[in-house]
Amino acid sequence: MQILNFLVLCVFHFFITLKHRTFAKNVNFNNVRPPADPTPFPNSFKCFTCEKSSDNYNCNRWAEDKWCPPNTHYCKTVHHFTTHGKSKSVTKKCATRVECHNVGCRHHRDSGHMECISCCDGMICNVDVPTNHTNAIFNVQRSHRKSDAHRVTALIPTMLLTTWILFIL
Ligand SMILES: *[C@@H]1O[C@H](CO)[C@@H](O)[C@H](O)[C@H]1NC(C)=O
């Protein structure tokens, strides 16, 4: 009985694949235009990117608007400022998880300034600069939970289909 179920599933999948193929043949790909700003790969995102700008305004104002490379998953911000809170340097970039291990605030001995580092995930999430231990954090809220939920959602049609096929047998 189990083998029979499996065979029927195979045949079913075969027909579905065949149907998709026929459909693809009829599509005129010359008429299919890519969207204005195509995402280069799944889960791609952008970060504000600048190197040692004088402050946050000048960083964001001139920040490059480009996609992050596939090995990065976060946006990182490094903020140097005086003890009076005046910005001295702002650097923003796409970052790997390892590059985000040193988030937080500390006294930067070389420059005599305070240094706060923050990371976040999500499209252009590094708008602000970190100024104290409350915002100099690794702020992850989007991609992982969302992709897990997405995976479960994607499974539901397959599960329903399988249940249905087993039911009619
Ligand atoms: C941290 O900085 C933010 C933004 O400048 C401010 O609103 C908040 O009150 C500060 N928190 C502490 C604990 O100083």
TrEMBL record:
Regions crossing the membrane: none
InterPro entries reported for this sequence: LYPD6-like, Snake_toxin-like_sf
Signal peptide: 1-24
GO MF annotations in UniProt: acetylcholine receptor regulator activity
One GO CC annotation: side of membrane
Localization, UniProt: Cell membrane
Coiled-coil ranges per UniProt: none
Entry membrane topology: Lipid-anchor; GPI-anchor
Keywords attached to this entry: Cell membrane, Disulfide bond, Glycoprotein, GPI-anchor, Lipoprotein, Membrane, Signal
PANTHER family: LY6/PLAUR DOMAIN-CONTAINING PROTEIN 6, LY6_PLAUR DOMAIN-CONTAINING PROTEIN 6B
Name of the featured protein: Ly6/PLAUR domain-containing protein 6B
The organism of origin for this protein: Pyxicephalus adspersus
